Amino acid sequence: MTATSAPTAPSSRPGRAGPPRSSGLTGTTRLLRLAARRDRVLIPASALTLMAVVAGSAKATFDLYPDPSLASPALRETLDNPALVAIYGPVASMSIDALATFKTVLLGGVFLCLLAYVVVRRHTRTEEEEGRLELLGSGVVGRRAPLAAAVLLATAAVLGTSVLTVVGAVAVGLGTSGSIALGVSWAVMGLTWVGVTAVAAQLTETARGTAGFALGALAAAYLLRALGDASGSDSPGRVLTWLSPLGWAEKVEPYGANRVWVLVVGVIAYAVLVLVAFALLERRDLGAGVLPSRPGPDRGSLRTVGGLTRRLARGTLIGWTIGYVVLGAVVGSLGGSVQSFVDSPEIADMLRKLGGGAGTIIDTFFATELRFAAIGAAALGIALTTRMRTEETSGRVEAVLATSATRLRWAAAHIVVALAATALVLAVVGTVAGLVDGGRTGDVGGSVGRLVGASLAALPAVWVCIAVAVLLVGLVPRLTGLVWAVLIGFLVLGEFGPIMNLPSWVTAVSPFDHLSHLPGGSLDTADLLGLVVVAAALTAAGLAGLRRRDIA
Amino acid sequence: MTSAIQVQGLRKTFGRTVALDGLDLDVQTGEIHGFLGPNGAGKSTTLRILLGLMRADGGSATLLGGDPWQQVESLHRRLAYVPGDVALWPNLTGGEVIDLLGNLRGGLHEQRRADMIERFALDPTKKGRSYSKGNRQKVALVAALAADVELLLLDEPTSGLDPLMEAVFKDAVREFRAAGGTVLLSSHILSEVESVCDRVSIIRDGRNVESGTLTQLRHLSHTTLEATLDRAPDEADIAALPGVSGVVVSGTHVTCAVESGYLGAVLQHLGTFGIHSLTSAPPTLEELFMEQYRVPAATP
């Protein structure tokens, strides 16, 4: 090599004849490094958490049943019923390994899909919408480089998490070939969502639109396989599972059939989707989507901050309402099949341990499902409440608070919307579940009343979550995101607290621990009142802080 | 004349950073007051305190005769604010935002709304996310200028506007004053301030350094003299004259800066060398401004 050489573009290799034809990928490596740096906490933390949940819950199951031969028949009967299968996926086999990972295979994979989605969206459409990609695009960066970098990083995140989880699973004593199959199953789901999100990011102009497509597809895939899995073994409905990428991942059946070859299906889907994304990228301008954005009205009917807040929450609320209608239908339709599958007292006792409850086994089932619905509603309430902070950091609140709208009225508007929205979705899930269950019992009015009452009785716990969000926004706005950690903490305490035999004062930290076991149990008004008082106190403290502090 | 805005000894710190360090500001009713300062001088912080978004750590601020922190609601009905970086809701159209902000203020002049949209050539049917920076700025400007208010607080309102739109903006602000309104215009675009403002306050490091009409400010400052003489003068002699600075002599050519009030003596001295040609330039606002910022803040 001579000491000096003509300056060359970073991507062109020596020995190439003629002016290099641009691949559009120039700068991919640098963008990849930038993206990896920005996600240096998110990706490793998510991977470790997912691994820890799989390994931890497997270990807890092993500890619970030191002699696997005793656990298997009872547990299997409990778990292999349509109600639980619809949520967690089918049990792959009778082995203790399969039972120990029953709850984590599918749900963990769904979380991995979410990670893939977040990474791809963050580095493509979000960057583009914020205009940062424009800045980068003016440098020596090929047209395809940002998408390539995002896809590569997300792919690495998916594969890395899968491998890490295999290692963690083997380390706690799960079978090696089954654990590898588990990794394959996750890789199929995660890789597919890398592709789905890459396509979604090309379709719309906004990160929100991308979220709508990618998460909508995830919800649809989850429901398709839920319907397929819950169908009878000879029903044509079982085909539905194969229509869902999450269904393919189930078909790997880790710790059962261990069909590792399904990976081929996932890789093909991944490759096709990524190619489609790049093809769509060619057909559009920077900042634009394949789908055009339409003009809106030139006059507005919004007159108050309340109107504005309701308007901004509209899209989110419509989405959640549809989701809760579907959830209610699924839960309601499963009520009848629970009884036929669970008839031994030990199993009923086990279910009670998992979900808590009194009364018939169907009541226990409904109580468990409605508690999940309440935690979901709390997430909605938090999302709507923390919009205050988003409005503040985005600078939009300045324009609003520079008008006659006061801080308190503005905050109250957000809180009212959050309270109303959570009440609405819980009423919806109870009503729909009641209507469907009424078909089984023959007493539609009674079923609706019982289930609506039961779901609305969870509202005080939801209010506490909203109040925590208000408190953080008002007193320590920088730490607003902590409210999500708090909610996840409540969820973990509720899900695993009883199994792990945590002392009751620990599980009592969660407001959901103080809910009455409805339907079936009796309404404990003192507990509910306590929750209301806590919620009111936290809200008042948050509002007092908001009144005093500077608005960023 | 009454004061629309009166600020005395305003102080605000963020952690260890001192944003405002005893700022004084006086805006008379019915004037367009230019609020000048470089980035980070504390202009936006002052406006945020005047809007009740932030609380001052010390000093006092009076806005339209009221306390901006306590009387948010009643005061805000009488004013409109345009931030320097307008953020819009991605899924609301410009027209919807204009109507919303108008409704939240004292109300909207229908005729002025239509007029402003036309003059600023704004498409009100586009969604917030699809506006460019300049167009987002126009949405906030139309909303403010069409509002039925008596005070405009404008924080670098023309950033992102093209020169044509800047001209529209200046006209609209002058019309607003002609109708009896008061304007506080924070800016670092000097030509804009120079052409529309009645009085100017220059701030630096959170303190007011100059304040007054442009004529007054010019009096405070230096006139640049440039002369070609018949015979070469002595540089030291000129520099020794009172009120003279920045003397450069090259042969028979002299340039120097002379404080107002000392011009006569300097001309007399130069006259002894025979003046061949002479130009004298009163300071532009830009020079005033640069002068305030060139050297580190003088300790009074």
According to CATH, the fold-level topology of the largest domain in chain B is: Rossmann fold
For the record, the CATH class of the largest domain in chain B is Alpha Beta
Give the number of helices of chain A. 24
Integer tally of domains of chain B: 2
**Considering the protein shown, what is the CATH homologous superfamily of the largest domain in chain B?**
P-loop containing nucleotide triphosphate hydrolases
Unreliable stretches of chain A, pLDDT < 50, 5 or more residues? 1-18
CATH architecture of the largest domain in chain B: 3-Layer(aba) Sandwich
**String of helices and strands of chain B:** EEEHEHEHHHEHEHEEHEHEEHEH
Largest interface: A-B, 37 and 45 residues
- For the biggest β-sheet of chain B, the strand order reads 5-6-7-3-8-9
Mean pLDDT rating of chain B: 88
Main sheet attributes: strand count, strand direction, barrel closure of chain A: none
How many domains would you count in the coordinates of chain A? 2
Helix content of chain A: over 70%
Strand and helix order of chain A: HHHHHHHHHHHHHHHHHHHHHHHH
**Share of β-strand residues of chain A:** under 5%
The overall pLDDT of chain A, averaged over residues, is: 85
Low-confidence stretches of chain B: none
Strand content of chain B: 25-35%
Give the assembly state of these chains: heterodimer
Structural class from helices and strands of chain A? mainly alpha
